[in-house]
Every structure is written in structure tokens, then in C-alpha cells.
């Protein structure tokens, strides 16, 4: 397997250009192009979609992930084979709410070490685990605990979601003695079509048989808070995300102590890698501080 060519393939996508990739790898643009072309010929398949943005095909992703795993294994077997001078990139998958609340501190802590980078893909917590199965990432935060073949899984704790709105919103849309069923008639906000938390909250926590009508969609976790403070919607959000707004009474819980708890699991490839172990330690440490 031509690992130099796979490295060229990966670098072209990361730097979004053949010339830039060549500068980083110490090769000419033509040499980079020829290496990738020969690699595609050897597999009799296209590995790079040559459009803007440049991106890998499914087979290209598998080769890239194989290259990453080989680097991690070589680092574990022979420290000097890459050593501290090599740049190690770990592709991971994280859900939006964790990234917006507590996972940034994980990235900050992990990045203090030299020559390591996290390439973070964002997806719903119900979909992140599948990215490990597809070979697109080496670790993921998921609400599914079952272990991916050849990998490991660790329960971290639960993220608490509460239904909140501004006092002005409550005055505008609800009576003084509102009940659970009244949420069917008020505007709510969800992330996108893959967001199942709102319906889970209605059914599992509030005990409602019929779901509320269509909601606003806004695929921005920080945008949720801005929308809530505009007095136009209610929304289900992580408690830790609106801690300050609750303390200042700019937002209030519509149903105090009616909480949806979403379990979170850390999955990672079963590789003997100090780098993956360090990342896992950082994840566990921050989870203890932020999850219940």
C-alpha cells in the first residue's frame, strides 16, 4: 500500500488544493497529482472528487482512515517512527449540544499538547456512532451505548434537557394556569429534521400522546438562546447551556423538574494509542464536571 500517495490524497483535501498540499509535503503540484492518479489507477476507482470543495469518495475516506490508524499504531509500537515531530490528526464526531456546552474545553485541554489536531465532525448524537462504523472517525460521542465492532465504549453520564421560555413569551402565549397539553398551541423550536428530543420530551416526560404541531427549525445551538430571548419560541435545551439566563430570570422553566435525560457514551477505535488514551481521559474528566 502506497502510504505516501494516501498522505498526498489526505493533504489535498485538508489544504483544499494540490499546490498547497505540495508545499506542505515538499513536493511539486505535478508530483502530488501524479501520486493520487496512480493510487486511483491501482484501485481502479475514483478517490478524490475534484470539485470545490475537494472531498474524498467513500473509498477515499476508508483509505484515509486506514492511514490514520497505521500512524497511531506505529506511534504506539515505535515512538521514534514519527515521534514528537509528526503532526497527528484525529477525526472525531460530536453532537451539537455537547460541542456548544462542555466539549470545547476537551478540545482546548487536548490541544495543549504539541503536534496534535482534532478534526471535528458535527452530527446528531443518534448518528455520530455510525461515522465510526463507516470509518470516517476514530472516536465519537453518542447516545447509543452498544460497542462498534473492534472498538470500545464508555458511559459518561447524562445531559439534562429542560423546556424553557422567556417570561414575556409565557405571558403572550400561555394562561396563568397552563398545563402540559397547552404546549400543543405554542410555537416551539427544534434543531432540524433529525432532532428527536422535542418529541421524546413530550411523550416520555410530559406523558402526551399527541405531539405538538410543526416547529421552527434553526440548526444553530447558540441561535436557540437568541431565539428564546427574542420571546418568540419555547425550546428544549441543555440545562448547562442556559444556566446564566435561568439565574438572571431571563428564561424560566415551563415545567420545573420535568427533565429529559439523554445518556452519552464515548466510543473509540480499539487501538493501542497513547494519543487516543489522552483524548479519552480529557473527555471523561470534563464529563464528570458537566454531566449528571
Give a verbal description of the structure:
With 292 residues, this protein is of the alpha/beta class. Among the domains are: 1-61, Winged helix-like DNA-binding domain superfamily/Winged helix DNA-binding domain (Arc Repressor Mutant, subunit A, Orthogonal Bundle), CATH 1.10.10.10; 159-261, D-Maltodextrin-Binding Protein, domain 2. 43% of the residues lie in helices and 20% in strands. Strands 3, 4, 5, 6, 7, 8, 9, 10 and 11 form a nine-stranded mixed beta sheet that branches. The protein has a two-stranded antiparallel sheet with strand order 1-2. Strand 1 and strand 2 form a beta hairpin. Helix 1 (3-15) crosses helix 4, helix 2 crosses helix 3 and helix 7 packs antiparallel against helix 13. The longest helix is centred in the first third of the chain and has 20 residues, at 58-77. It starts with a helix and ends with a helix. The mean pLDDT is 90.
Amino acid at each position: 500500500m502506497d502510504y505516501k500517495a494516501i498522505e498526498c490524497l489526505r493533504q489535498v483535501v485538508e489544504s483544499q488544493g494540490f499546490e498547497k498540499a505540495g508545499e506542505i509535503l515538499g513536493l511539486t503540484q505535478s508530483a502530488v497529482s501524479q501520486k493520487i492518479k496512480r493510487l486511483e489507477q491501482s484501485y481502479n476507482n475514483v478517490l478524490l472528487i475534484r470539485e470545490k470543495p475537494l472531498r474524498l469518495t467513500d473509498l477515499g475516506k476508508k483509505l484515509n482512515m486506514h492511514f490514520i490508524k497505521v500512524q497511531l499504531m506505529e506511534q504506539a509500537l515505535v515512538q521514534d517512527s514519527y515521534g514528537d515531530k509528526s503532526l497527528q490528526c484525529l477525526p472525531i464526531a460530536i453532537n451539537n449540544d455537547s460541542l456548544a456546552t462542555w466539549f470545547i474545553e476537551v478540545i482546548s485541554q487536548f490541544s495543549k499538547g504539541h503536534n496534535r489536531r482534532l478534526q471535528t465532525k458535527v452530527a446528531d448524537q443518534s448518528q455520530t456512532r455510525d461515522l465510526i462504523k463507516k470509518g470516517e472517525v476514530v472516536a465519537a460521542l453518542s447516545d447509543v451505548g452498544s460497542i462498534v465492532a473492534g472498538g470500545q465504549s464508555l458511559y459518561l453520564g447524562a445531559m439534562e434537557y429542560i423546556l424553557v421560555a422567556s417570561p414575556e413569551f409565557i405571558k403572550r402565549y400561555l394562561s396563568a394556569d397552563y398545563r402540559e397539553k397547552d404546549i400543543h398551541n405554542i410555537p416551539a423550536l427544534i434543531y432540524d429534521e433529525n432532532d428527536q428530543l422535542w418529541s421524546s420530551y413530550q411523550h416520555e416526560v410530559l406523558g402526551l400522546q399527541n405531539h405538538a404541531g410543526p416547529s421552527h427549525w434553526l440548526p444553530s445551538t447558540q441561535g436557540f438562546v437568541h431565539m428564546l430571548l427574542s420571546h418568540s419560541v419555547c425550546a428544549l435545551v441543555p440545562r448547562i447551556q442556559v444556566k446564566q439566563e435561568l439565574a438572571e430570570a431571563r428564561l424560566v422553566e415551563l415545567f420545573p423538574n420535568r427533565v429529559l435525560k439523554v445518556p452519552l457514551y464515548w466510543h473509540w477505535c480499539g487501538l493501542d494509542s497513547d494519543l487516543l488514551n489522552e483524548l479519552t481521559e480529557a473527555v471523561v474528566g470534563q464529563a464528570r464536571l458537566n454531566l449528571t
